[in-house]
Specification:
By secondary structure, the chain is of the alpha+beta class. Among the domains are: 167 residues, FAD/NAD(P)-binding domain (3-Layer(bba) Sandwich); 72 residues, no CATH class. The chain is globular, with a radius of gyration of 23 Å. The protein binds flavin-adenine dinucleotide. The site of flavin-adenine dinucleotide (FAD) has 38 residues, from helix 1, strand 2, strand 13 and helix 9.
Length: 507
Amino acid sequence: MGGAIMRDDRTIVIAGGGTAGWMAAAAFARFVTPGWRVALVESDAIGTVGVGEATIPQIRLFNRHLGLDEDQFLRETQGTIKLGIEFRDWTQPGHAYLHGFGDTGRPLGLLPFHHYWLRAQAEGWARDFGDYSLNSVAALKGRFARFEPQGPVPPMPYAFHFDAGLYAAFLRRFAEARGVVRYEGRIVSVERNAGGDIAALLLDGERRVAGDLFVDCTGFRALLIGETLGAGYEDWSRWLPCDRALAVASARTAPPIPYTRATARKAGWQWRIPLQHRTGNGYVYSSRHISDDEAAATLLDNLDGEALGDPRPLRFVAGKRQGFWRRNCVAVGLSSGFLEPLESTSIHLIQTAIARILAFLPAGNLSEADRAEYDRLTHLEYEYIRDFLVLHYHANGRVGEALWDDARASKPPPELARKLALWRSSARVSRRDEELFAEPGWTQVLIGQGVLPAASHPLADAVAPGDLKDFLDGVAQVAERVSAAMPAHADLLARVAASPPQERLTA
Ligand code: FAD
């Protein structure tokens, strides 16, 4: 995203005011006005999905491009810092590992760190892989620091947990202050012109919102891209079998920890997301493997504070649209597809869709070549993330439970199968162009899920045993020492909460 783009007399109409709608409105308000008009239609009667509280570090880029002040953002959204995700019980009861953002260890010579760790592991003296990750060590200690980029310690990558409703409200104020016009009402039909493009949304009360480019943020219903323009849906439930979730907030019982927790359960997994004012919880499960009542009982039995209401049911099918940009309409958010929040990627997909729309913003009608390229990039992005999620299921160790037995036995998607074969044979990770998760993420999850390769790189054997021990110990000691000197995450939140409210929304 760069400076404002100047155009006259064109209107972008955003259908839907959930997280996707208001993120799009804020970004368009910041980057395509003045010149373009931006309108948003939402219906309080229909409401939003209202979940989506954990993110990945790229969200900071989105906020920074908008010019949001981070402390104000944390205050307004009851946000907390997220250094990674802890996966509990995915391999066996009591086992846990962290997928911390950022690197584990550091490369030595030609090789990435994990080859040296694998040698030490094979020799029987390695510590947990996570002990060599600053993010993981700091997360488990409940510590966090914002390091200066030019300082002796490289900045720690971090993301946020936040209240999705408060974030949307925050962005709404931002967008409306920059001229976005909001229409409250239900879209009852969609008017198309003689060529088949969308001309206007017709709202109850006989109102008409006309536009040139329509952004479908209507959630799972996909009112424009699906119902109106007929873009089909590709079902990925053969790889990601969970099709329901129950979400419930619970009372905070302790200072918020700076990481998400994802605990495997009999028929899916449970999330725990610590916010300042409450804890978000949910059970993502397969309805073929557990009843709704049993899932609700499991969720409520596994809260660490009092439930603040009844569990809220959500239904979905893992997968994506067969096309994301059709005619003068582009899908953003849940209308474009759904991948369960195991690695907190949905809000990221909203963010990248918005950035891509800005990159492809058409002067008139989008050309067929542009549309095809937009779709190609989006399909790939979905597939890359899907494969990373499927890894968690496929490489589970929960023997004797139907969902997990099936997941181990099922054939992974071809690209994941290729990646697994490469890793198993030689500890190499291949990353395709623009793939979201890179070597640090793949190695942490592969090793965390217990997928250990047959061999590490032969050059790792060239290091003298004493030198190897010094190297690994040194890395772990630095993570330990640096994290021990960091302030407590809870202190940062207290300081943010106590700092005076700012007059402006933007820096
Ligand atoms: P919605 O929130 O459903 O919004 C749809 C909007 O369209 C609403 O404003 C509605 O009023 C409007 N609308 C619909 N029909 C009409 C109509 N006819 N007329 C007028 N308005 C209409 N993402 C993450 O990044 N991290 C997470 O931890 C995470 N956890 C999740 C857990 C679960 C169980 C689920 C289901 C999702 C999770 N997500 C997560 C995804 C995240 O919630 C969504 O990506 C995000 O909320 C965006 O939703 P949306 O705006 O596309 O749709």
